[in-house]
Amino acid sequence: MNLPLKLQSALTAMSFHTPTPIQTKAIPVALSGRDLVGCAQTGTGKTAAFCIPLICHLLKNPGQSALILAPTRELAFQIEDVLRQMIAPFPNVGGALLIGGASMYAQIKLLSRKPQIFVATPGRFIDHLNRRTVSVISTKIVVLDEADRMLDMGFEPQLKEIFRFLPRSRQTLLFSATFPTHIENLIKKYLNDPVHVSVGETSQPVEQVKQAAIQTTERDKNKVLLKEIHERNGSILIFTRTKRRTDRLSQLLKANRYPVDKIHGGLSQSQRNHAMAQFRSSKNRILVATDIAARGLDIDHIEHVINYDLPSVPEDYVHRIGRTARAGAEGEALSLLIPNDYDVWKKISKLYNIEGASMERPAIDIPKHHKRRKRFKKRSFSGPSYWVS
């Protein structure tokens, strides 16, 4: 790919040496100006696949702007981090991170500097459109990242409103891990004769993930979890279905002297940033999360994913276990099944052709843990709410 030398240098500094399959397929199409639909499993380099051509376009067309929409604040932060590093050599290219939970005043002040790239969640971007603090008249590239999750979270009305403001003459890039009917309808409505590119089988777990399931009961579930954690090394991401279960489970693990934090939609942005930072730096090797809050986690060192609760939607199973075995690494995914889960597990197994994911009933021999530590008041750390190059 014929990229600007400064951009190539930035990519080298970020350890991007060889394009991934999705980058090899998607970047040339995006550079040509065509609309694009990209399908790839998580952890395959999708972010760079749209960031690189977006930056190239803005360098050639400095009077234009670009919009990247993400379903969650965490995913928006991940995209912002990648973009910040890529545009570092270009002082004339700036960006704004527009997400809920951050200072509206600071974002308005930043927008007054006319940034070229908007990285936003749909709700907050609508707020700015309604306030007329952001203009999309010159927005010629629009990226929808994890479009399936956006629709699952109920953002279709917001997307409809945003596209009403956008110019008709634009390039739209859509990336999704799954393609249910409502995604196909979205593509037909907002994309113009798009080129479809895909890597691997649609909505299939990555091959490097070793999958297993354990039969238990609601009463013994915590004991089984403690046993499994005790026997595993490395970082662990545990999924629960509700905020309350996330809170209770993190308290249980703390009481058993495990370095753990939690992340769910009920926490402030600074608390979520702190939990992410602690997990990313390996200061806490366990993170308990809900599906929505964990969306956008891009951490290479997650060795284990444990489904304490099965997902409410079978398609979320792939998104969950895709948090491990990223960038070609190996990982393990374990699901704890109570009797009420068996039918859902059968649907998941059939949907994704899961073979060898045994359903075992372990002998529960819980290790003794240290005495409970005194509880300290949790500190809250403020993370960045906006950025410029």
Tell me about this structure.
This protein has 2 domains: 5-199, 3-Layer(aba) Sandwich (Rossmann fold); 209-360, Rossmann fold, CATH 3.40.50. 38% of the residues lie in helices and 18% in strands. It has helices at residues 5-13, 21-31, 46-60, 73-86, 104-111, 122-131, 147-152, 156-165, 181-190, 221-230, 243-255, 269-280, 291-294, 316-321, 342-351; strands spanning 36-40, 65-69, 95-98, 117-120, 139-144, 171-176, 195-199, 209-215, 235-239, 260-263, 286-289, 302-307, 331-337, 359-360. Strands 3-4-2-5-6-1-7 form a 7-stranded parallel sheet, sandwiched between helices. Strands 10-11-9-12-13-8-14 form a 7-stranded parallel sheet, sandwiched between helices. The longest helix is centred in the first third of the chain and has 15 residues, at 46-60. The two termini are 24 Å apart. 44% of the residues are buried. The model is unreliable at 370-389 (pLDDT under 50).
Question: Descriptors for this entry?
Answer:
389 residues, seven-stranded parallel β-sheet, alpha/beta, 18% strand, 38% helix, Rossmann fold
Number of helices: 15
CATH homologous superfamily designation of the largest domain: P-loop containing nucleotide triphosphate hydrolases
User: What percentage of residues falls in helices of 4 or more residues?
Assistant: 25-40%
Mean pLDDT: 85
CATH class descriptor of the largest domain: Alpha Beta
Largest sheet at a glance? 7 strands, parallel
- Spatial strand arrangement across the major sheet: 3-4-2-5-6-1-7
**Rg value:** 21 Å
Number of domains: 2
Just name the CATH architecture of the largest domain: 3-Layer(aba) Sandwich
N- and C-termini, Cα separation: 24 Å
CATH topology of the largest domain: Rossmann fold
Helix/strand-derived category reads alpha/beta
> What gross morphology would you assign?
globular
User: Count of DSSP E strands?
Assistant: 14
Ranges where pLDDT stays below 50 over 5 or more residues in a row are 370-389
Q: Quote the beta fraction.
A: 15-25%
